[in-house]
Here is the input.
Amino acid sequence: MTQIGILALQGDFEKHSQMMALLGHQTLLVRTKEQLHSCVGLIIPGGESTTLTKLMKKHDLWNPVRQFSMKKPIFGTCAGLIVLAKKAVGNNVETLGLIDIQVIRNAYGRQVDSFIDTVTLKLGRDESTFEGVFIRAPKIVSLGSDVVPLAWHGDDVVMAEKGNILVAAFHPELTSDTKVHEYFAKKIHV
Ligand code: GLN
Here is the structure.
């Protein structure tokens, strides 16, 4: 079975599941490593990265997710991006270090805590715009040379990939535009 897993320990998992279902994919809400192993890809949703890391450990999913990434694609949005990053600068949240980016949590400050603004997407040869929903979003402050930037908000890279790992600082599941989820589904060839 080719189902896409949505990590469902905390946060915004239902919307990702609906988006993938809309695209015709079977999804599974993942809360155990056995469920993870039955999936061909995994989405780590937004939420609160400190809580997410604690729950991943508690549910024995921390190392299994790391191993999963060796063979299968993972897409992390917002808190999911933080969990996958190499380092959360100035913060002691533990990360999986699966993509060479450094991030600052809640980087947009109080006044612009959450906002919607246009993001420029470059997926392969297609350049387009996307409605970027940013909710207490992290900022990517450095990218390793092997990390490919895929979207920008002004000068900031807000979506990137390296091998099996795709990350976005915004919430594509909260729009009606399916482009980003389609891109992830293509990475897993389903
Ligand atoms: N601010 C959250 C964190 O640092 C992320 C917010 C989100 O996922 N929407 O974990």
User: Anything to note?
Assistant: The mean pLDDT is 95. The first strand starts at residue 3 and ends at 7. Residues 13-22 form the longest helix (10 residues). Helices lie at 13-22, 33-37, 49-58, 62-71, 79-84, 179-187.
